[in-house]
Design goal:
2 helices, about 75% helix
Length: about 100
């Protein structure tokens, strides 16, 4: 019974197989590095997203504080010299 591959054929193919194996190892290393870099970028973007959400919440709280009726009345009386009219100065309009 004869072997399917002779010793001479194996010795001719061996450098190609080694080169192919090295290329696969290099491709695997490049792929791992690219994955690591993309994963780090994703983690950084998630942190930034969380920080932006916190900042947005703070701005919403500040907006609601500045727009509150008490704040508006305070600014109107202090900065603009306005006052809440007394009952004698209130006019009711009826249709």
């Amino acid at each position: 019974m004869k072997n399917a591959v002779s010793t001479g054929e194996v010795s001719k193919e061996l450098p190609r197989l080694i080169a192919a194996a090295w290329l696969l190892v290099l491709a695997s290393g490049v792929g791992d590095t690219a994955f690591f870099m993309l994963n780090n970028e994703l983690v950084q973007l998630e942190r930034e997203k969380h920080q932006l959400q916190v900042t947005w919440g703070q701005y919403l709280l500040e907006e609601s504080t500045l727009a509150s009726l008490q704040r508006v009345e305070f600014v109107a009386s202090r900065s603009l010299g306005m006052a809440v009219p007394g009952p004698a100065n209130v006019v009711t309009v009826q249709e």
